[in-house]
């Protein structure tokens, strides 16, 4: 799927993505990773800090993001968390906001959504000269849509505070090959 079709035909993209999720073990694997492995990864990010600044790049409709936030919340129950989301697809942002409204256990977590691509965010940050420092950044299943992957990772890596982590998840085979035969 090209970037153009991804962004210009929202409903078709979202429908296709949900069919993919239903027919793959992708989300199940990610949830297992979030429950079992993520706690070890995020054990360095807090260190008495509050708020913890989290950046989700290509957060989609937020299901995975909310699971990640619950783990951060469980690891750092006393810290306030600010979760910023970069997501170019407006429909996905609306779904994300609905998920947040319906989900309990998100007390003391604030959300900001930016309808833009990672490159637009990068340009905006560079021109505002307000380079944020972040405690945890994640890019889950979104690097496929970025033109210059090393430059993108390099920019976001430069926003990490000491002890902070960046989490990248991508499939090792194209999504079409991970679909189960029906
Ligand atoms: C496959 S979905 C993954 C959504 C979510 N992270 C998950 O795992 O459920 C990819 C997301 O990246 C977003 N996206 C596409 N191009 C992007 C870009 N250049 N910068 C940021 N996000 C992008 C899409 O709109 C979509 O919501």
Automatic annotation (TrEMBL):
The keyword S-adenosyl-L-methionine applies. Gene3D superfamilies: Vaccinia Virus protein VP39. Keywords: Methyltransferase, S-adenosyl-L-methionine, Transferase. Pfam families: Methyltransf_23. It comes from the Eukaryota. Monomer. This is Histamine N-methyltransferase-like isoform X2. It comes from Pogona vitticeps (central bearded dragon).
